[in-house]
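Anyone up for a design puzzle?
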């Protein structure tokens, strides 16, 4: 099972954002949409072997998306943002965690450490300037959004990570990192 943990520093868990301003006052929701799309979508389907955790640092909440039961994710940002907005709206009304708010999407009050502690696979921290290491299918890849991880976040991640890896000699966006990892692991499977 491939797993990813995206640490989001700007998005607020609030359903009041406009679908016409995905990079607006409520944080970089556009980045979340790109990450979700690149994490799960393949031609004519959804990757069922993938899990994505999105940790919202501003609210100390985590969304877990499980490809084996995920439904209705489309390639366009707007429809994905609409799903996220509806989850946020319902959550802010009821404040219930551990509930599946959409097929394959559950919201938890988990910290980064809670996610890493529960990982039953190797944790690999993706960071510019990291070393090179062959990637493993059974891994949780940790990456940040458009902002660097804080020193405290890095301390926690480094306690659990077996390695810090750079997947490119140039700086990539989070969604591009996920695409590169999927590609490499898909290639390993076919050779």
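Challenge accepted. My sequence:
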């Amino acid at each position: 099972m491939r797993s990813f943990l995206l640490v989001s520093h700007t998005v607020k868990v609030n359903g009041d954002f406009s679908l016409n301003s995905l990079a607006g006052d409520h944080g970089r929701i556009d980045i979340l949409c790109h990450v979700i799309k690149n994490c799960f979508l393949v031609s004519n389907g959804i990757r069922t072997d993938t899990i994505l955790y999105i940790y919202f640092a501003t609210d100390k909440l985590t969304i877990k998306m499980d490809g084996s039961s995920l439904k209705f994710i489309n390639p366009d940002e707007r429809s994905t943002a609409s799903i996220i907005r509806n989850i946020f709206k319902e959550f802010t009304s009821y404040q219930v965690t551990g509930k599946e708010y959409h097929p394959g999407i559950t919201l938890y009050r988990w910290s980064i450490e809670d996610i890493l502690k529960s990982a039953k696979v190797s944790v690999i921290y993706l960071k510019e300037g990291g070393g090179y290491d062959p990637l493993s299918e059974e891994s949780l890849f940790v990456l940040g959004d458009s902002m660097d991880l804080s020193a405290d976040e890095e301390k926690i991640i480094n306690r659990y990570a077996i390695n810090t890896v750079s997947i490119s000699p140039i700086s990539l966006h989070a969604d591009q990192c996920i695409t590169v990892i999927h590609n490499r692991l898909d290639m390993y499977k076919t050779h």
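A detail worth pointing out: Residues 73 and 80 are 6 Å apart (CA to CA).
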